[in-house]
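Re: weekly structure request thread

Next one in the queue (141 aa):
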Amino acid sequence: VGGQPARARARFDMTDPISDMLSRIRNAGHALLPTVAVPHSRMKESIANILKKEGYVSDVAVEGKTIKTLKLQLKYQGKKNVIEGMRRISKPGLRHYVGATKIPRVRGGLGVAVISTPEGVMTGTQARKKNLGGEVVCYVW
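Done, posted below.
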């Protein structure tokens, strides 16, 4: 891009880091890459741990001391990614909040809704059981 050095290009203002994480996972899955690296944050780590617990990724690791990186080991069935799709629901420009009774079921229960509640980030099923509402972060199926 232009005559800028690589360091200058790499630094840009990211308005939606969670959407960036989902895009990196989606792109790595399409390219059949074994791992994907994402800049670390506690929210992203929570989402990655939910993906691991639900069986969408095989391993999650945090690497680095000062500048942390989240490494996700992707799962495949033959030449097909286990994650069929991901969709960001609550965006920086338009947040989407739901009550405990209005938590959506993704693909008729075959997918997972990631909800950010007052008790932390959890799946829609867990939030329903605990009778908690919150912000719908994304859908994974």
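The longest helix spans residues 17-30. The mean pLDDT is 92.
Next request, please.
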